[in-house]
Amino acid sequence: MRKQKIVIGGVALVTGIAAALVAASASAGTTTFEAESAGNTLTGGARVVGCRRCSDGNRVTAIGLRGELRFNRVAAKRTGVTKIQVTYTSTEERIAQISVGGGVPTVVEFPDTRGAGRPGTLRVVLGLVAGDNTLTFGNPAGPVPDIDKIVITTDGPPPTVAPVVPASGETGVTATASGPARPGPSSPAPSSPALGNPAPGSPGPASTDGNGGTLALEADVVSLVNAERAKAGCKKVTVDARLTGAARGHSAEMAALGFVSHTTPQGVDFAARITRAGYKFSVAAENIAKGRPTAQDVMSSWLNSPGHKANIVNCAYRDIGVGVAADKTGTLLWVQDFATPL
Q1: Is the model's pTM score more than 0.85?
Q2: pLDDT of 186-210, one tens digit each?
Q3: Which residues contact 300 (CB under 8 A, 6 or more apart)?
């Protein structure tokens, strides 16, 4: 089985997750970036609130779903993996997707800090470039911990973190359904306590750069799908925000929880996910894949599989949603949802 690794800007994308919470601190050789700084960008309802125990007495809350926090001008002295401490608060275990420079987000699991006003610190490593970087915290499928600050280590040698080269995993899995859709178990409760579900009709946040960011990968997949449909004499499919939200949420959940399936560990299938996103369909289908580093690679794997290709060139489908997420090793998870409304 061919192995892949994800490389962004020449640096293998890896993360490290601390086994326990430690006290927040800053010392010589570090640079601190406060979440509430006026130089950062808050979107989608993310906002600054008071926090007595937090640095400078504030933290940023309401990150996740539509909310995003972007640290601008995060300076790194060298290109490569960089030690980063994230100080945060959370009453429960939560998931964040951290995107560097608008690239494909990396999924990071944050343990609870036993209180909304009790900060804890999680150590991670991310691939930065020399000079200014942007770090975006978000999660299209659920809430992110409140962020107090990040601290970048600026002295000493780079961290000795060996890039993980994951197996390519399944080239793809396909499923189809016809409506009306089933509501699924425990609907509309979240399929994962850490991730939740996207709001109906919401595609969720995504990176917006044109150099390997999530939007670029999604757009490439859609373009390749429509090129194949044209060859088959089918009309183009149209990107639908509800299907996009369902696809992004599922790719993030697979990346966070480490599974590849149309059905979540809680038993929620893709038909229920599409319906929960607000899309009532007559027919629908889903392709998923793991370990393919580019849109062309994942499309090639799907097109080489009769079942996946049948979904792509089925003229009955009118709409599409695509989601991409990276797990903690940098491996990409892909979801492609097709549907036609009732």
Answers
A1: no
A2: 323 333 333 434 444 445 444 333 3
A3: none
